[in-house]
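Our preliminary data section would be incomplete without showing what the modeling component actually yields. Below, a chain of 160 amino acids is followed by its predicted structure, encoded as tokens that our downstream tools consume directly.
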Amino acid sequence: MTNGGPADSTTTVTFMMVRVGFREQNIAYASAIAVTFFLIILAINLIQRRFLREEGLTWRFNLQLNSDANADRRRRLLRQTLTTLGQYVLLVLLTGIFIFPLVFMIVSSFKASNTQIFDDLRSLRAFLPVGEITLKNYVSVFANSKFRASCSIPSVFRRP
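Predicted structure:
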């Protein structure tokens, strides 16, 4: 709507990632912005969980089959255990599928140029930290951009 507003006052982090990554074709820098934003959200989430003392789900495999337990109870426990194990296997497979773009984004954020990223796409080098590895994209996130301002409350909502 406002394309970032006057003087980028309404630019959000996600809008900045899209603009840098797609319009300016600077994938490494956009990946560095995304990874930094992810780490900030992760830190806030961990702090929130710590202060709220939120208990996570715990999975228990209850295979205590006493000799006096009937066969129906044993079958039910075994079916429940196999179902839970199947769910774990499915979650591990889905995690493996969804982890590849995340690994690519993190590795790309350390690459020096888009040329290196596009050349590495032809092999597994796209998922490995090889070639010219640098932190300049992360330095640019904080030094040369309005990333810090984008993480704060937009000026539209600030009190005068």
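The radius of gyration is 23 Å. Residues 56-66, 155-160 have pLDDT under 50 and may be disordered. Preliminary results of this kind motivate Aim 1 of the renewal.
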